[in-house]
Task: structure prediction
Amino acid sequence: MILSRKNREQAIEAIINEKLNPKIEQIREEFMCILEHTAERMYPKHVQDWLDNAPEGGVHLRSHFGLKMHSGDIVKHPLLDRFRFEGGLKKPMRVLAVHVNLDVLQMNEADSVTAVTLLKKLHEINEEITTIQTVVKRALQSCNTRKQVQEHYPDLVKYLPKIQPVTKGLAINNDHVRKVLTGI
Result:
């Protein structure tokens, strides 16, 4: 099988997913804990209980927030998807109408120190990603076929996409035609 640019990119993506995504997810979880803690500090349990029983109109549900460190810097990193959590808070938080447009929650000093440490870890992971992309891309570009990759870089073969059966230039494969014909 001749390697295409897409095959090479898929192999690089598979390596990054296997090697580094667990680390990134762990850091995201730690940031989620900080976000939950910051939200609870903004609206303590007794205030949340009061807001849960408040009449409609002055209270709104929010679940997506960013984080601002004690220094005033907003937490951002490309590996965190601009720090807009996909799921947001585990349970949407009721906020007063004056906070309905609040996008960023202010962390306390201890959480800010933790956030700085986590951002440093993300920076290191980002450097690892760059290294993997450079080295693996060069290795795969030096090979034209899957067989060459297997001969020269046997550790990379498992990351290449699976070989698809060749249809010899046909618009659709025989299995698809068979399914259509048996359905008639």
